[in-house]
Amino acid sequence: MLIKFPSKIPASEITPEPIYRARRDFMRGVVGAGAGMALSSAWAAPAHTDKDAVDRGPDWLRKQLAAARPDVVVAKDPLTPFYNVTHYNNFYEFGYQKEDPAANSEGFNPYPWNVEIAGEVGKPGSYHLEDLLKGMELEERVYRLRCVEAWSMVIPWIGFPLASLLKRFEPTSKAKYVAFTTLKDAKQFPEQKSYFSSIDWPYIEGLRMDEAMHPLTILAVGLYGKALPNQNGAPLRLVVPWKYGFKSIKSIVRIELTETQPKTTWSEIAPDEYGFYANVNPKVDHPRWSQATERRLPSTLFSPNIVPTQMFNGYADEVASLYSGLDLRKFY
Amino acid sequence: MKTLPVSARRVLIFVLASLPFGWLLWATFTNHLGADPAKTVVWQTGLWALRLLLITLCVSPARRLLQWGWLMVHRRMLGLFALFYAVLHLLAYVFFILGADFSRLGEELIKRPYITVGAPALLILVVLGVTSTRAMMRRLGKSWQRLHNSVYVAVLLAWLHLFWQVRSSYFEAALYGSITAVLLLIRLYWWWQRRQKVRRVVRPGQMERG
Predict the structure, then answer these.
(1) pLDDT digits (tens, 9 = 90+) for B40-85
(2) Are strands A69-73 and A114-119 parallel, antiparallel or unpaired?
(3) CA distance linking residue B62 with residue B69, whole number of Å
(4) What does the alpha-carbon distance between residue A282 and residue B43 come to, in Å, rounded to a whole number?
(5) What ipTM describes this predicted complex?
(6) A288, A293, A302, A307: which to substitute to probe chain B, counting the most B Cβ within 10 Å?
(7) For B100, nearest residue in chain A (alpha carbons)
(8) A84 and B35: CB-CB below 8 Å?
(9) How far is A99 from A89, CA to CA, in rounded Å?
(10) Of A84, A218, B24, B87, which is least packed with CB atoms within 10 Å of its CB?
(11) pLDDT of B179 over the 60 cut
(12) Which residues of A touch B30 (CB under 8 A)?
């Protein structure tokens, strides 16, 4: 396949979020950082006073976020600016346009938050988020995020391996899958009332147990050094970097370990388009578009930033072994 | 509107129909197209092509039901604007989504049903645009109207093109689908009325036998 547009990213877009960089360098104890600040160009994002660029969340979470270990796993690609990460995403509970989640999530209240741990575990129950995070060491993970719609970003998450949470609740030998559920609350999620939606709320996603226990799979509570903005899935979301973005379910209220494969939202609506696995795979097209390339955001019309999509989103070395013997064309 | 001279109305309609294009240009150069400008431009140009096509199809009903005869002279310009946005829509898709890879255009045309139906819709608009001049009207005579009736096929295909891209919200598809349905049903009713009249004139005996 020919990629006529250079995949080289122009200098105007390399500039990462300068404030974030400065803060991160400070965390590492590096003095005199911020050479990139001068490069911060008007092209990165329109001028704005950003309500999201402030500290959020309760004190206990802020303390834990501040103590997060930086850069445990780093994607080499330049970061997508904070403004784009928080103002261009899918979160259908807040609306169907990419700008809707940022625009309609101001009234959402993620604290306090309870998560129910259920199913094949030794210690089921409903737990405060604060208790779930107690003693959990937070790490920063810079991951590529590849949306099934053929656009992608590079995002510095803060979270912890899902495995370390699941182990605490003592999965039984019958636990083969993990099912996650997003909050269902039409008062806070206006689109859950929509008559035009084909989605049967609440949103449900799932992983195979070995995928859930993989060290790359994390539960995120923050991004860019701060607590998750509401539109990005506050207060707790999944991030599975080698799968299409829709697997990384937001605002989780329930985690259930099951013996059988859970019925997940998109694979129920359109099973020919969205499989249970949803591993990033440039060789298997979505029926309505090619998955061979992606638009790395932010892009401009003059340099569309079209880059080839990598097998397992570039994490093949770490995860390909999970699927040895599995026909990825059939189990897409 | 009626009291304005035709030329003033022309300028006004031209300016109004150019506004979406003006906005896209402004947004492109001031970086207000969002993180994924390719998607925004393709979506907006497609939406405006469909909207202007529907507005064009409102002209006849407006003339007959509201006695807005003055609108007729502007139908051609409205139709050409629909064509203009449809062409921009295709160009934006080829250059910004496919990265100007023309070999991929052929592939996508065959593989994706929603693109397969979008292409003939655009083709019809091109043909109608080319044959929209007075000279062509004279040359084609009676077959001009028959040719231009294919605009109904174009609008149906355009709607299908939108409908087949729905992922979970049917809002736009439902909105433009119901407008299309109303505009086509009006024509169907007119056609049925005409047929009744013709019957009554040509074969009056038929009615009695009922």
Answers:
(1) 999 999 999 999 999 999 999 999 999 999 999 999 999 999 999 9
(2) unpaired
(3) 8
(4) 24
(5) 0.79
(6) A288
(7) A4
(8) yes
(9) 7
(10) B87
(11) yes
(12) 46
Q: How many CB atoms lie within 10 A of CB B59?
A: 18
Q: Which of B31, B33, B169 sits opposite A96 (nearest CB)?
A: B169
**What pLDDT does residue B140 have?**
95
What percent of chain A lies above the pLDDT cut of 90? Answer: 77
Q: What average pLDDT is seen over chain A?
A: 86
pLDDT one-digit tens code per residue, A266-275? 999 999 999 9
Q: What is the pLDDT of residue A92?
A: 95
Q: What does R_g of chain A's alpha carbons equal in angstroms?
A: 19
What is d(CA A73, CA A76) in angstroms, rounded to the nearest whole number?
10
User: In the structure, what pLDDT confidence band is assigned to residue A1 with cuts at 50, 70 and 90?
Assistant: very low
pLDDT in tens, A164-178: 999 999 999 999 999
| Contact between chains at A88 and B112 (C-beta distance less than 8 A) | no
CA–CA distance, A81 with B167 (Å, rounded to integer): 27
Does residue A232 have a known ligand-binding role?
A: yes
The pTM for the full model equals 0.83
Q: Could you tell me the domains of chain A? A: 11-241+248-267 (3.90.420.10)
Please judge whether A2 and B33 are an interchain contact, meaning their C-beta atoms are less than 8 angstroms apart. no
Residue A86 is assigned to a ligand binding site: no
Separation between Cα atoms, residue A241 and residue A74, nearest integer Å: 12
- B contact test, residue of A5, A301, A305 with most B CBs within 10 A: A301
Scan residues 16-55 of B and list those with Cβ closer than 8 Å to A: 28, 30-39, 41
Q: At what angle do helices B171-202 and B151-163 cross, to 10 degrees?
A: 150
Cis peptide before A101 (omega within 30 of 0): no
Copy the structure tokens of residue A244: 């299409």
